Every structure is written in structure tokens, then in C-alpha cells.
Amino acid sequence: MMKKLSILALLFISSSLVWAGSSSVHSLRGDAALDAPAVATSAKAWAVDDGKISRNYPQQPPLVPHDIEDFVINQDSNDCLNCHNWNSEMPGATKVAVSHFLTRDNQALANISPRRYFCTQCHVPQKDAKPLVSNMFRSLADE
């Protein structure tokens, strides 16, 4: 019995090694070895800031149509609120939704709820980049 188990384990290990070494496994890095230096890629351009970006599915948080690379968003400061807070006078900036001023129990707050304070948890900027892998996703606009 032990001899049969040993043979099965040996066959499993050898077939796993053969599969791992096969050419059917591909990396997003291409055929570069793991220890090879990474090839520098060109920086992608931010999506054109022409206002709102259409949403792809129901309840999708609005996308950020501008660069936020140098924004500070931490427990002490949130640069998004310089333009998007209700008392900001920045023309054209979408104001923070009323839902962001509610607790989990729907109690109104004077300031943004701590659970909604870190904007980039949900709202993400868009770069002009092709997807890394192909997919079959279709947005609502395509339907």
C-alpha cells in the first residue's frame, strides 16, 4: 500500500513539474525571466478632463475626470474637499453627495462621515491605458 502511494505521489509531483515548465503558462511580463530587470514602461496619460465620465454599471461611484497624483488624502487632510465640499466655490466641481454625510444608521452629520472620507476607496481616476488582459465586459452605454 505504501509503495502504491509513493508511486502516485511521485507521478503527481513529476507531472506538476512538467506542467509548470510547459509553454502554456504566460506572464503579463512576457517571456522575461523573473530575475531579469523590468523594462521601463511609458507613463500613461490621464483621461481628458472634459467633465463627467459615463458610468458602466448601476450604482457605480462617479469616476474622477482629472489627475489626483499629488493630492493628499490621509486622516489629517483631504485635498478633494478643497473643490468638492459643499462650501467650496470651485465652479463645475461636483459636490459631495448627501449620502456621504450620513452614518450607517442614517443619522445626519455636519461633516463627511469617517467611512466616506477616503474618496479613492470608491472614486478612481482614469488613465488612457489599454486593459492588461482581454475581457468580455460591456458597459451599460453599449447595451
Keywords:
143 residues, mainly alpha, Flavocytochrome C3, Chain A, domain 2, 16% helix
Brief overview:
The protein has 143 residues and is mainly alpha-helical. Helices cover 16% and strands 0% of the residues. The chain has a domain at 61-129: Flavocytochrome C3, Chain A, domain 2 (Orthogonal Bundle), CATH 1.10.1130.
What can you tell me about this protein's structure?
- The protein has 143 residues and is mainly α.
- The chain has a domain of 69 residues: Flavocytochrome C3, Chain A, domain 2 (Orthogonal Bundle).
- Helices cover 16% and strands 0% of the residues.
- The mean pLDDT is 82.
What's the SSE blueprint?
Elements: H1 2-20, H2 81-84
CATH architectural category of the domain at 61-129: Orthogonal Bundle
Identify the CATH class of the domain at 61-129: Mainly Alpha
Radius of gyration: 25 Å
Q: Which regions contain 5 or more consecutive residues with pLDDT less than 50?
A: none
CATH structural fold name of the domain at 61-129: Flavocytochrome C3, Chain A, domain 2
- Helix % is 10-25%
**Contiguous helical run count:** 2
Number of strand segments? 0
Largest sheet features: none
> Which structural class should the secondary elements be placed in?
mainly alpha
**Shape descriptor:** elongated
CATH superfamily assignment of the domain at 61-129? Flavocytochrome C3, Chain A
Q: State the end-to-end CA separation.
A: 60 Å
- Average predicted local confidence, pLDDT: 82
